[in-house]
C-alpha cells in the first residue's frame, strides 16, 4: 500500500504525518508553530522529510495560498506567512515526487474521497473560520481555473460598499460568512462595538432573542452565497467545514437554498473528514499523482 508524507503549512501551525492510500493516518502527527522566517519553515519541512522519506512513496504539501496548476509552487501567499514564502522550492527538499496544493482544495479532496461529499462527483466545500476558504470539485476533479487560484470565496454580495474585506475589496462573501463576518453582524445589530462571536453563541444557548437573530442573519448570509454558487455550479452537495461550521444549522440552510435556486436540489452537509483533512487530502492527491 502506497504512503505519503504529508504537511499542512498554515499561518500559525505546521503539521506533518504519514497517510496511506485509504486516507488513514499511520504515524504520529507532529505539530509546530509556524516560524516567522523563511529558513525556519524550510527547517521543519526538512525535519519531516529526514524522518520519513525512506518510509513513503511521495510527499504531499497542503499550504495556505494559491498553488499553480503544475502543483509545484505557491503563486500567491497570505499575509500571515513570511513575505518571500512564494520563493519556496518544494521539490528541492526530497528525492521523491513532491505534490503541492492549496489547503482548502486539499481539504475538499479529503471530504470528496473519505468524508461528507464521498460519492458526490460535483461538490463545493466552504471552510468557515476567521476567513472563508473554498474548494470546488467538478466531475470528480479539482477545479483549479486558468492559473490555479479558483475557489477563492471573494465574490461580491452587495454593490454599495457596506463592509471592507481583508482582501481590500468591499462586500465579499468572506466578510459576511466568516467568523469575523458574524462579529461584524453582531456589532451592527447590537450597537455594541466590543461584542464577540463568543457572546453571540453564549446568548443563543441562553435563548436570547437578539443573539439568535444575529446568528440567523449570519446564516442567511451563508445561504445567499450558497444560492449563487449552486446556480453557477449545480453541485450534488455543499460541505461546510472549519471552526464556525459547528454553529451552522445545515438543514435550515439547505431548505432555504433549495427554495430559491433555479437548478435541481442540492444538499448541505457538515464536514466529517476531521481536523487534519488538509494533510489527508494532500497525501491522497500526491498518491493519486503517482498513479497518473
List keywords for this structure.
alpha/beta, Nucleotidyltransferase, domain 5, five-stranded mixed beta sheet, 12 strands, 292 residues, 2 domains, 8 helices
What is the gist of this entry?
By secondary structure, this protein is of the alpha/beta class. It has 8 helices and 12 strands. 35% of the residues lie in helices and 20% in strands.
Main β-sheet: number of strands, strand sense, barrel status?
Answer: 5 strands, mixed
CATH architecture of the largest domain: 2-Layer Sandwich
Query: What's the helical proportion of residues?
Result: 25-40%
CATH superfamily of the largest domain: ATPase, nucleotide binding domain
Strand sequence of the main sheet, in spatial order?
3-2-1-4-7
Q: Low-confidence spans: pLDDT under 50, at least 5 residues?
A: none
CA radius of gyration: 19 Å
Tell me the domain tally: 2
Q: Which overall shape is indicated by the principal axes computed on the Cα atoms?
A: globular
Number of H/I helices: 8
How many DSSP E strands?
Answer: 12
Find the CATH topology of the largest domain.
Answer: Nucleotidyltransferase, domain 5
What portion of residues belong to β-strands? Answer: 15-25%
Please give the oligomerization state of what you see: single chain
Broad structural category: alpha/beta
SSE succession: EEEHEEEEHEEEHHHHEHEH
Would you tell me the overall average pLDDT? Answer: 96
* Gap between N and C termini: 16 Å
Amino acid at each position: 500500500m502506497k504512503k505519503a508524507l504529508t504537511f499542512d503549512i498554515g499561518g500559525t501551525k505546521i503539521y506533518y504525518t504519514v497517510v496511506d492510500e485509504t486516507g488513514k493516518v499511520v504515524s504520529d502527527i507532529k505539530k509546530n508553530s509556524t516560524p516567522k522566517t523563511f529558513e525556519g519553515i524550510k527547517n521543519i519541512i526538512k525535519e519531516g522529510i529526514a524522518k520519513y522519506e525512506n518510509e513513503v512513496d511521495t510527499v504531499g504539501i497542503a499550504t495556505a495560498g494559491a498553488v499553480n496548476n503544475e502543483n509545484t509552487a505557491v503563486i500567491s501567499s497570505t499575509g500571515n506567512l513570511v513575505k518571500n514564502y512564494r520563493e519556496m522550492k518544494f521539490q528541492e527538499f526530497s528525492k521523491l515526487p513532491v505534490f503541492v496544493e492549496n489547503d482548502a482544495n486539499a481539504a475538499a479532496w479529503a471530504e470528496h474521497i473519505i468524508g461528507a461529499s464521498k460519492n458526490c462527483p460535483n461538490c463545493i466545500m466552504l471552510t468557515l473560520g476567521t476567513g472563508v476558504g473554498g474548494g470546488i470539485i467538478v466531475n470528480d476533479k479539482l477545479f483549479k481555473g486558468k492559473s490555479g487560484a479558483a475557489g477563492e470565496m471573494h465574490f461580491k454580495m452587495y454593490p454599495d460598499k457596506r463592509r471592507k474585506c481583508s482582501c481590500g475589496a468591499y462586500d465579499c462573501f468572506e466578510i459576511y460568512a466568516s467568523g469575523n463576518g458574524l462579529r461584524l453582524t453582531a456589532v451592527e445589530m447590537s450597537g455594541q462595538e466590543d461584542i464577540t462571536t463568543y457572546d453571540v453563541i453564549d446568548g443563543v444557548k441562553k435563548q436570547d432573542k437578539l443573539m439568535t437573530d444575529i446568528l440567523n442573519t449570519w446564516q442567511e448570509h451563508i445561504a445567499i452565497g450558497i444560492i449563487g454558487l449552486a446556480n453557477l455550479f449545480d453541485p450534488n452537495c455543499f460541505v461546510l467545514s472549519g471552526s464556525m461550521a459547528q454553529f451552522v444549522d445545515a438543514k435550515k440552510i439547505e431548505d432555504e437554498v433549495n427554495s430559491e435556486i433555479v437548478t435541481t436540489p442540492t444538499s448541505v452537509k457538515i464536514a466529517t473528514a476531521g481536523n487534519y483533512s488538509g494533510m489527508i487530502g494532500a497525501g491522497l492527491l500526491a498518491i493519486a499523482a503517482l498513479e497518473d
